[in-house]
Amino acid sequence: GLLDTVVNFQTATADDEDPRDWRVRKNAMTLFSIIMAGYGKTENAAPEWLEGYKGQLGQSMRKALGDHIAQVRVGAVECLPRLNGAFGLPWVKSECLAHMRQAIEGDEYYNYQSKDATDKPDKPGLRLGTVVALHSKWIAYFESLGKLITEQIDSETAKEWAEVLLQGVEVPTANVRFNAIFAMGKLATVADDDLLQKSLKPAIEMMANEDVDEDCKYFAKTQLEVLESTSGY
Q1: Alpha-carbon Rg of the chain, whole angstroms?
Q2: pTM here?
């Protein structure tokens, strides 16, 4: 059927050396998510075959979110709100976000950077061109959070995401910090007052005043202005 054809398009070209095939992977992933979300939103009982394809959908999303081509990762991130609406945030967190965190925390550079100087192993070697760099994994993760943060997220999720975003705004790579502060700004607008005042707002203020990258500093200041105009703080 159509779904099998779409899945085959994704798997048949994922390891191909021709870089033009990333467009096939991206479009197949997008189409797969649209079809599946349509079935997931139906008011009638879900067909029995849907669960099997949901497993394939999760696998396909994880592969796309970790693709070595940036535009494929971007396309997968764009699918997340659609899947959140169809299958719920718990499904997205367990099938997509959890795997992304594992990929970050399992990265040799992550482990290298997180250790004390006296405990560091030898510096990791150069990566192959098809291996996704740590900063790209971080960016995809924070872009995903930015797409998923809405007023509907529960307080435990807000706290969980706040913790990782507080880590993100201290990552040495400016592009990572920029995406982290973008997501943090969205979270700040929907977080409860305790989380906002004790964690999020101080971090945004620190970046606005101290970040060495002008773009990060400017955007943090913009986020503060939004908060002050909407909350009165």
Answers
A1: 19
A2: 0.86
